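Appendix B. Extra example for self-study. Work through it before the problem class; the solution is given directly after the inputs so you can check yourself.
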Amino acid sequence: MLAGVAIFCSSCDSLILYNPNEVIFDKDERNLNAKNIERIQQIPITDTLQFILMGDTQRWYDESADFVKSANNQKDVAFVIHAGDISDFGIGQELKWVNDIMKKLKYPYVTVIGNHDIVANGPANYRKMYGPMNYSFEYGNNKFVFINTNSREYAFDGSVPDIAWLKSQLADNPSNKNIIVIGHVPPYDGDFDKNLEKDFADLLGSNPNVNMSLYGHKHSFNDGEFYNDGVHYFVTTNVGARGYMMVKVWKGGYKVDRIEF
Amino acid sequence: MAHRFLLIIALGISLNAFGQREEVFQKSKKWYLPDHMKLQFAGGVGFLSGGPGYSSRNKTLETDILFGFLPQKFGGDALVTITGKTTYSPWRIPVRNEHYIVPASIGFYLSYTFGPQFDSKWPSYYPKGYYWWATSFRPGAYIGGKVGKNFIYKERKRGIEAYYELGTYDLLLVSYAQNRGYLHLRDIVNLAIGIKYGF
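Solution. Structure tokens for the complete assembly:
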């Protein structure tokens, strides 16, 4: 029997589960945002940057695999942004499944944390697999700022989104790069802290380098200049609805197309 | 780590090749005292878990309470779990020298993991039904089997068994049901192994 179990167990790793909430990741499943940013920054810079905005893969693995096929058939894509709700239950296994699918993309992908990724041990899983919840990077003439906007998960205690951090990120832009702020919950949604909505929108609206801001969460396409301040908000649909957004950015302009697959 | 644990179980079984005496009168014990103890490795309820249990008179039904612990070193987070489980094993095939095989078991469990990050009832700042599952309670089910041996020790008929269980839990089962293309059964199944000592 022992030999039987030993043979059966030759690929024991995935067979052994100590607790659904365990926070265990292989070396190649850690700190993925930083690793993928490194890959992005090695891509030659062109006049027009094209990237994909998709999100809410939560419990839609079949559709996520189809998304990868569709994305890989697109031309001139630099990278993919996952707008959050990577997992449904905040369980590490879900993040691993999604990463296994997203690894098949021809492009690097980066993520922003969604409300479902904050459930249970979700924050610990996210930090281990992807890194800090608030982060930014620059590529070409653009600065991408990723921020946790899932206020409801923190009982609307005023800490999320971190307005002070966002302010410092927007201020730290000596060469006046085009700034794109990415979150999961858009500021005009009920899951965003009402007490921080104005501060958040004003920060974006008053900054001449911010023209667009990208989100997920709503499970349908949605966009508009909701605060009449020159900032256009774009929300991608969920992968379950078989859609994503193709974003083109160039100096002085941008174009966003809705894609269905 | 897993292999070392298997070795311990194997040693435990072979060490129990004593007490080969004629059956003696089985002293009746107090009804509330447990019939057996189990010690389990993995299975989603701790790195190690163990605790008392009761068996039905015909030994086909066992009910256990397992106290599980996952050290931070192995789990990335230190987690304490209490589990109630019931296992039904309809057949028992005698081999030789009081050894027997239980080819099939089926069972289910409900575990509770402690921690401020886990909720049984979602806080009031969520609209009703915002999330439909509790994060502290985890129901699961499994199939398995075991091998065992009866022996007499200190004038009492006792037994030791080694078991395995292949199981999954609600959240993975829901994920599997909705993603039959990408997910396979092997993706959601995990293995538990353990020993049972019957007093």
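Self-check: Confidence is low (pLDDT under 50) at residues 4-25 of chain B. If your reasoning did not lead you there, revisit section 3.
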